[in-house]
Amino acid sequence: MVDLDYLKMSKPQKFLHNLAGFFKALPGRIGGGFVNLGRRIAGFFKGLGLSIADLVTTFREGDWKTRLSYLVMGSGSMARGQWGRGLLFFLFQTVFNLYMVNFGVAYLSKLNTLGVVETYKEGRRTVYGDNSFLILLYGVLTLFFILAFIYTWRVNIKQNKISQQILKSGKKLKSTKEDLQSLMDSQFHKTLLALPTLGVFVFTILPIFFMILVAFTNFDYNHQPPSKLFTWVGFENFKTLLSSGSASYGDTFRQVLFWTLVWAFFATFLNYFLGMFVAIMINKKGIKLKKMWRTILVMTIAIPQFVSLLYVSKMFAADGLINTYLMKWHWISQPIPFWTNPGWARFTIILINIWIGIPYLMLIATGILMNIPADLYESARIDGANAMQMYGKITLPYMLFVTGPYLLTSFTGNINNFNVIFLLSQGKPMGLSGNAGYTDLLITWLYRMTVSDTNYKIAAVIGIMVFVVLAVINLVVYNLIPSVKNEEDFQ
Amino acid sequence: MSETKQQKLRSKKGHERRINGTIYTVLTIMSIVWLVPFVFLVLQSFRSYQLEKGGMVDYLIPKHFSLDNYAFLFEGSNFFSWCGKALLIALIIACLSSLLVVVAGKWLDRRDTVKRAERACALGACLVVGYVALALLAGAMHGFALAGNLVHALIGLALFILAGAIIARVYLKQDSKLLRSIPGYVVEDKYEGVKKLFAMAAEFLAVTLIVQCILCPMTTSQYLKWYGNTLTIALFTSVIQTVIVLSVSYALSRLRFKGRKLIMNVVLVLGLFPGFLTMITLYFLLKQMGLTQAGSVPGLILIYCASSGMGYYISKGFFDTIPKSLDESARIDGATRFQVFLKIIMPLAKPIVIYTILMAFMAPWGDYVFASYVAFGHQNGYNVAVGLYNWVNTNDYQNYFTRFCAGGVLVAVPITALFLALQKYYVEGVTGGAVKG
User: Could you say which residues from 114 to 133 on chain A have a Cβ atom under 8 Å away from some Cβ of chain B?
Assistant: First the structure.
């Protein structure tokens, strides 16, 4: 019965029904999530217990080579003739030991205070004390290093166990040459992913962890290492950003967040529908010079944005071409405040973004429109449907279904769309507290906090907030749009 | 009966015509709106900054058309004389050696057994490698002998490598023609990959060396320096990033291993953090390596490439559409995974390779944020975006506006030409990416 009712509903009703269903199921889902999390944690500890037990049994049943490997990594492999592997393990342990002795322990022990020895002047000479920045960064690095070491150590033991079993069953172990060959074949993914993973770790994961931790410190212009120390302050910065009051940025944050969402909404959906419309016009039967129209529109993608957007932003300036010509023709007596009035500035940005954004959508929509089976339209025409009906019943649903994932990524991308805002208005007009402007997105505000205000702690909190907003949107959409969820099925 | 039908048809035709007319009008208006800013840009770049005001004026058409904005950009460089010499030398060498190659080809042409064909392949490979090596040697010697100075030596080297690369190209063409002309030619050219790789590497090296040597130290023109920096970054980034992106997407699409899902989920979560959050940390890391300010070019290359593995979505989507049976049959024939990747998937993935190269090449031209932060205050380390942005957004922009226009035109023209030439691949990548997410 319920299914039948559902089928009877119109599209918007269905959507509302889904939405309501989603929110109804939300507490259960969150509860389920926690249960799941609990189960996972329990599973983790169970796994940990098992692997410790395994360590003990391996030690008890192992020969001297295996036992030696508990202390000196790779010695077992080397003793069994697998020189390549053994040396790698051994090298890793040596590097780890050297690092820990020389830097690791010192930084790790200071991580809880981030340093206490201030930099001071002794006469003319500056005596440097602790550097909180280094302590935090290398502290995080050391933590990662320790985790990696434990993991490698465990792998090392496991390999000893396996080698022992292989030898017991009378088979031969892989030689170093075979090991190297397998890197091009059965272990090819390791070769392919080694360098990219290292790059992502050093230049993305480590910095992000560092910045998340910075959000819990008082690292700003008054506490700049190496001359000053900074330290942990708990959730102080989150309070500053979220609560309203004279010294905090709550109101600004809400305004900026609101504008960010409005901007992302318009930038995504306005471009989407207009772009689709243009694509339909160009692809209509009987329209000539299709390629020329497309090429003209694509110009805005081809030309680097810093040229086109900077030029256009100057065109709309108070002394720019548009205002001066309008005044010359006596259509207006005062320059239109494109960049100085908050409302106008927001409107202009959305308008110019159409200019930049339509071509992308036009290209995408063109590709998809060509894939819609022509006989669908044919049968609709025979049934007497007019153009609007065909659009509403065939084109739009098809497009929406196919481009569901794209809409999501595009919305996410627009929330982080730095270039358009920064090149057009730099967030101006200013006027909000916290040195934010009326056209600032969270991301441009973050940029200004980092570069001109050097208020790193608040910048870090804003970054975390952007993450939270995006994560929430992604989760909600992921649960509502089927084609997003099933993207893996495409294979 | 038939009359009413005709009337109906005629009215339908009229309706159709009206719709098409409207569409043409809308498209024309749109085209004008889309192109007008660029036309304005070009027009204003021809307004003399010496005879008229260089900044904002209330008219569009310049009163004196002049090239002095462009002249300003090239001021203080002997760019053109160097370019001329380089081209001339390269041309002469290329002509001479292609003559040689053609003669050699004719000689080889007379023999017609399979064994000979195999030998011809090997000979071809040796010749290509030999040419490049000779070019290297000759270039170095020429440089030191003529100039006795490192920069000049490097330029000589670059020229000769370029010449070698051109020869290698010509030879390759000749080579394959030759091989195909041998009756009973069935052997696979084992060395084809090596030959091509060598030719490409030589070209790449030559271009970057020329960019660095001619554009950068020989000139006092800042604009050319910025241009050279950006071109160098773009060239290196496009090569390294393409290799990284393709390997990651291939691994995630075709290989099944423990931790594959984990990697994809981690990348998804990391992607939700705004990129500029980590700016200070990256700056610090680069500073530790000495790659900020004066070393901003390698520093920026490092930043653009290091995390590029996270942008694997589009090419993974493409790899997903290549049938798996291809891999499997090759594996049954005894090919290793590496061979499958290189010999079977790569040739099929040409569109996505070109798309990735194009995107990686275009991105550095527009990057302002990291470039300005890494090169902070060190004018010789800027890229074009930072340099030109500073021209229009300083207090002096009234003076520099037309020069900005000229600089912008010089950036936009080659990039746009490149983009339009490869538009097909771009469309393929974008639509594929949007459909599959």
Answer: 133
Q: How far apart are CA A194 and CA A61, in angstroms?
A: 34
Name the nearest CA neighbour of B127 among B159, B172, B94.
B172
Residues of chain A with CATH 1.10.3720.10: 250-490
| B389 neighbourhood in chain A, CB within 8 Å | 306, 310, 423
Radius of gyration of chain A from its Cα atoms, rounded to whole angstroms:
30
DSSP 8-state secondary structure symbol assigned to residue B345: I
CATH superfamily of A250-490: MetI-like (1.10.3720.10)
User: How many CB pairs (< 8 A) connect A and B?
Assistant: 261
Nearest to B89 by CA among B135, B131, B26, B144: B135
Distance separating alpha carbons of residues A164 and A325, to the nearest angstrom: 86
The alpha carbon of residue B46 is apart from the nearest alpha carbon of chain A, in Å, by: 15
A319 touches chain B (CB under 8 A): yes
What ipTM goes with this model? Answer: 0.83
Torsion-angle region of residue B290: left (phi > 0), alpha (psi -120 to 50) or beta?
Answer: left
> Mutating which of A131, A197, A204 best tests the B interface, going by the most B Cβ atoms within 10 A?
A204
Distance from B397 to chain A by nearest Cα, in Å?
A: 10
Q: Would the CB atoms of A192 and B308 count as touching at under 8 Å?
A: no
Distance from CA of A355 to the nearest CA of B (A): 7
Query: Do A297 and B31 lie within an 8 Å CB cutoff?
Result: yes
List C-alpha distances in Å: A313 to A322, A328, A345, A352, A420: 11, 20, 11, 9, 10
Closest-CA residue of B relative to A182 is B336
pLDDT by residue for chain A (491 residues), tens only, comes to 456 666 666 666 766 777 677 677 777 777 777 888 888 889 888 988 888 888 888 888 878 888 888 888 888 888 888 888 888 889 999 999 998 888 888 888 888 887 777 777 777 777 777 888 888 888 899 999 999 999 998 888 888 888 888 888 888 877 878 888 888 878 888 888 989 999 999 999 999 999 999 999 888 888 887 778 888 888 888 888 888 777 778 888 888 999 999 999 999 999 998 998 898 888 887 788 888 888 899 888 889 888 899 889 888 888 888 888 888 888 888 888 888 888 899 999 999 999 998 998 888 888 888 777 778 788 888 887 777 787 777 777 777 777 777 888 888 889 988 888 988 888 888 877 777 888 888 899 988 888 888 888 888 999 999 999 998 888 887 776 655 444 444 33
Question: In Å, how far is B289's CA from the nearest CA of chain A?
Answer: 13
Q: Does A202 touch chain B (CB under 8 A)?
A: yes
Nearest to A304 among B260, B275, B366 (CB): B366
Residue A325, chain B, CB below 8 Å: the answer is yes
Please indicate whether, in this complex, the C-beta atoms of B416 and A184 are within 8 angstroms of each other. Answer: no
**Interatomic CA distance for residues B161 and B169, integer angstroms:** 12
Distance of alpha carbon B259 from alpha carbon B253, whole angstroms: 13
DSSP 3-state percent helix, strand, coil across chain A (nearest 5):
75, 5, 25
Query: pTM for the full model?
Result: 0.81
Residues 6-25 of A with CB under 8 A from B: none
> Are B45 and B404 contacting, i.e. CB atoms less than 8 angstroms apart?
no
Find which of B39, B42, B242, B281 to mutate to test the A interface (most A CBs within 10 Å of its CB): B281
The distance of A64 to chain B (nearest Cα, Å) reads 31
For residue A228 the two structure tokens come to 């000053």
Backbone φ/ψ region at A228: left (φ over 0), alpha (ψ -120 to 50), beta: beta
Superfamily (CATH H level) for B236-437: MetI-like (1.10.3720.10)
Looking up tokens 């023609």 gives B177
Cβ distance of B274 and A206 shorter than 8 Å: no
